[in-house]
Amino acid sequence: MGFYFYSACCLFIIFSKATTAIDTISPSESLSDGRTLISSDGSFALGFFSPGTSKNRYLGIWYNNIPIQNVVWVANRVNPVNDSTGLLKIETSGKIVLRVQNTTAVWSTNTTASVQNPVLQLLDSRNLVVRDGNDSNPENYYWQSFDYPSDTMLPGMKIGIDLRTGLHRILAAWKSWDDPSPGDLTYGVELEGNPEMVLRKGVEKYYRSGLWNGDGFSGSPNLRSNPIFDYDFAWNETEVYYIYFLKNKSVMSRFVLNQTESVRQRYTWNPETQTWKLFSIMPSDYCDRCGLCGPNGNCDNNKLPACQCLTRFKPKLLERWNSSDWSDGCIHSKPLNCQTGDGFIKIGKVKTPDTTNSWVNKTMNLKECRAKCLRNCYCMAYTNLDVTRGGSGCAMWFGDLDDIKQFESDGQDLYIRVSASEAEQKKRAKVKLGIILGTVIAALLGFVLVICYIHRSRRTLKDKVEDKNVNDNENENKDEDEDMELAVFAFGTIVQATDTFSFNNKLGEGGFGPVYKGTLANGQEIAVKRLSKSSGQGLNEFKNEVKLIAKLQHRNLVRLLGCCIHGDERMLIYEYMPNRSLDSFIFDQIRSKAWRLWEEAIPTEDKRNISLLVSSSLGHTSYFPPPPKIKLCTSQGVKGIDFQFLFLNNLKKKPGSELNKYGVVITPS
Ranges for the Apple domain (predicted)? Predict the structure, then answer.
């Protein structure tokens, strides 16, 4: 029983060690083909693999949590293992050794430091490190794979040079998809002249980043705004390197060299499609090819041909240049004369020239930089070393200016040496342009001022005319009020009396306009005739009518109490007759007989005394229209005359107008 229990425990321990992911091995342990180290977060794995169709075995690191095996680091790139007998161990000295059949070493690290308790660990950062088992400080690592990159740059990895040790971290592409051994496409920092990132194809400088200007590389001015990663370039006494970090750590992004296409590519992982998506590529366009336009040429993708000579330069060999052979480049249009003095012109938004023959100073300002360059007859261009915070530092180039690229936006300003006459010509052109612009702006401002003056004058004149009209109207109204000796009612008083001209208070409507019943604040009832805007009657006609009616005041007529003039409103205010219109009496079946009897009873001599006053052009002289609207007093007779006066309205109706357009007023003789 005890034997079976012991056997089961051993099998459980062996099975657990085989299935549990580990990220570390010690000198007492090893990693054989078929087993892997897995980073603690499960994102990366270290083990043996065969690339493409090859049967060779390599020790490498790859993404562990995606379905596609993308190897990012290879240990034995040059010496593959031909079978599955590879074995990885870490010795007590801290040296890592990859052996075949546990005998022949095909790859190893060179560690000279003394290590007390060495362990080999695969970190979540994708970095394989040798460290003391009791010390996890990155500064104290004895060895790390990030110092020996393959073809892929990962976040946090430095590509550059340690000036203290001479360690040169450089990317080298795989020769092919089946062969991870180094190809001839490389990418790294070059210190010839001043540092910049360079992609080489063999010995040929294939692409370069341009000088670092504090915000980015001048050859990639718009890269800073990308949403995937941020980056920096360190340049000090101890090291020079390029490094990048992911803005979102949940995003997977890698930077890899492609030998087949001779490009540097950046990919990001798309979890939805489970594929890598190309994010950027370098060289990205035709003008990214290093030295395409020859010395003193300027490559512009927006022009045809793309290669142009710099301003104040001309093709060195015109015939060859016109046949699209730009290798000889350009020369100054006018020879320089350093002794008598040269000048500089500015070209903007460019990638700075190749830094091979350049010099920098971090403390000088741009004015000092210009003066120093002008004193050196070999200095052909200068600019700020750092473009942030208003610009600082000095960068100068000597001899021919190679590999300048023109951008539409961003880019850097570059000051190029030309002859004094051409520099003055540039200044004169600027002055001329300034004069032209100043003249145009002045003319536009003058035109605007003239328009404003005219507009203001018209408004002033209009205001004066309106003020004059208002004053004239007020004076006229005042004069008329005095002439008529009638009460002038305020518009608000009438509005309140008629309940804002309520339909319920409407008595009728004629050619003059509607008639409303109203009650003043003292209780007096009034009838308000409101001039209709479609009546065609103006202010003068209205005043004439008021004058006429005012003169016709009589005890036997409906009394005119006053008027109201407010803006376009014209109103007459009469005393109110509480009984209905005369037509209700004349045309009533019972009352009409009495009317006829009364008419027959009037003596002929009295009829002659009846005078008819016809107002054929001034509208109605009473607030009631002719017969259908003649009002009666409370005694059901014409006010105060006991039917001794006859009101007639039997005039001929004019074509196109109402009969009540011609009212009749009856007065005693």
Answer: 338-419
Q: What is the pTM of this model?
A: 0.63
H, E, C per residue of 453-489:
HHHHHHHHHHHHHHHHHHHHHHHHHHHHHHHHCCEEC
Token look-up 């604040």 returns 521
Neighbours of 313 (CB within 10 A): 21
Cβ–Cβ under 8 Å, residues 597 and 603: no
Q: What are phi and psi of 237, to 5 degrees?
A: -70, -20
What does the DSSP 8-state code read for residue 386? B
Burial environment of residue 304 by CB neighbours within 10 A (0 to 12, 13 to 18, 19 or more):
exposed
Strand (E) or helix (H) holding 24: strand 24-25
Which pLDDT score is estimated for 553?
67
- Nearest C-alpha neighbor of 625 from the set 510, 524, 525, 528: 510
Nearest residue to 582 (alpha-carbon basis) of 659, 663, 510, 636 = 636
* Among the listed residues 533, 493, 527, the one whose alpha carbon sits nearest the alpha carbon of residue 513: 533
Contact present, 408 and 393 (Cβ < 8 Å): no
Structure-block tokens of residue 642: 């006991």
Alpha-carbon gap, residue 536 to 533, rounded angstroms: 7
On the question of a cis peptide bond just before residue 283, with omega within 30 degrees of 0, the verdict is yes
Question: What string of DSSP letters covers 141-171?
Answer: -SEEGGGS--SEE-TT--EEEETTT--EE-E
- DSSP states of 592-646 as a string? HHHHHHHHHHS-HHHHHT-EEEEESSS--SSSS-SGGG-B--TTSSSTTTTT-S-
Tens digits of per-residue pLDDT, 256-288?
A: 999 999 999 999 999 999 999 999 999 999 999
Structure tokens at 560: 């005119």
Which residues are paired to 197 by β-bridges? 189
Query: Which tokens hold the place of 23?
Result: 């990220």
